[in-house]
Specification:
Strand content: 5-15%
Strand order of the largest sheet: 1-3-2
Number of domains: 3
Mean pLDDT: 80
């Protein structure tokens, strides 16, 4: 009898423990849900604040630009903006260098046109007003190829101390620490110290909600960008101007490209790095080459050597080329190397 009573009391205790566990679990879930909700609301508010700040900054930039244009027009009523906007680039640069037009006339004319177009299309994210300060020193840079010419740069091109959001909220409030390579080249080789940049981005869109795949893609993109910067730094530390990459062979036979993509990885790499690259034909596959290929064993006599032989067999007459590579935004150096290679090939055939 006593044993039955003990069992009954134990059973009641177990039931009470289950209820307690259930109660604690339920309370924990509620608290967790509340915490997650608070975090989500807080994150949403933070996002809205970022968007609000970006919009206010943009509006302030446009308003200040409008005021600057009005003041200039009042003090220079004879400036013919309509005529300036009809000039081609060559005509514009010529008149600027001759002095028949001033950089101020050109800048304010284009700013006025930009503001007018923006009201219709909502295409301007910001006008860099520091360009107005450069007008005081621009006269000393008349040798620049684009002396006094306003230059527009898309919002996805980094400009020091300005956001490069690409329309994504996560990138707001993160001003670039330095100019992009394009901006550096413009300042150094084209515009010199004249920073007349009107920044455009067709239909700026701020994505408030991002899916979970998106962060992974963003991490991958960030890793690629880091790799690009590491490669550029190493390239420069080696004092390399341009690079010449011999292509491994002529075009592969049908269905072999996918099987032997690793053999071309050292040339395909520059697609990932976004380096300018071009291919120049230096020779063609000859009958002698085909005869020698019949005895080709490869480096390791493995599957890859066998596949390569099959891939290029029967290529008589096909071009054999080299790949020329340069750093980003230095396309002219790549083209110069290609021209030099082409010239050497012509001379060798004489």
């Amino acid at each position: 009898m006593q044993a039955l009573q003990n069992i009954e009391q134990f059973t009641k205790g177990v039931k009470m423990d289950k209820w307690a566990v259930a109660l604690v679990t339920g309370a924990t879930c509620v608290v967790g849900s509340v915490v997650m909700l608070v975090k989500k609301i807080s994150s949403h508010r933070e996002t809205e604040e970022k968007i609000k700040r970006a919009r206010n900054k943009r509006e302030e930039s446009l308003q200040r630009a409008e005021q600057a244009v009005l003041r200039y027009k009042e003090s220079h009523p004879t400036t013919d903006s309509a005529f300036i906007l009809t000039l081609s680039l060559s005509e514009l640069t010529q008149q600027l260098k001759e002095g028949s037009l001033t950089p101020e006339d050109v800048l304010y004319s284009y700013m006025e046109k930009t503001l007018a177009v923006n009201k219709k299309l909502n295409c301007c994210t910001e006008i860099l007003l520091e360009s107005l300060d450069q007008l005081t020193t621009v006269g000393s840079n008349k040798d620049g190829l684009l002396y006094g010419v306003p230059v527009s740069v898309k919002e996805n091109i980094t400009f020091k101390n300005h956001d490069c959001s690409c329309g994504v909220v996560i990138n707001l409030d993160q001003p670039a620490e330095k100019d992009s390579v394009l901006v550096q080249v413009l300042k150094k080789h084209v515009v010199v110290d004249l920073r007349l940049f009107l920044v455009f981005l067709p239909a700026l869109v701020l994505f408030v909600e991002l899916g979970e795949k998106v962060p992974e893609l963003w991490k991958q993109h960030a890793a690629v960008e880091d790799y690009i910067q590491e490669t550029i730094a190493h390239w420069r530390s080696c004092n390399i101007d341009v690079l010449l990459c011999p292509v491994i062979g002529p075009a592969y036979n049908f269905l072999y490209c996918g099987k032997l993509s690793t053999a071309a990885s050292y040339t395909m790499l520059y697609n990932l790095l976004t380096f300018p690259a071009g291919v120049v034909t230096v020779s063609t596959v000859t009958t002698k080459d085909e005869e020698e290929l019949k005895h080709y064993k490869g480096c390791y006599q493995d599957m890859w050597d066998k596949l390569f032989k099959e891939a290029v067999t029967g290529g008589e007459g096909l071009p054999v080329a080299v790949q020329c590579v340069a750093l980003p935004w230095q396309d002219e150096l790549c083209l110069r190397l290609m021209k030099e290679v082409e010239q050497l090939v012509k001379e060798s055939k004489k």
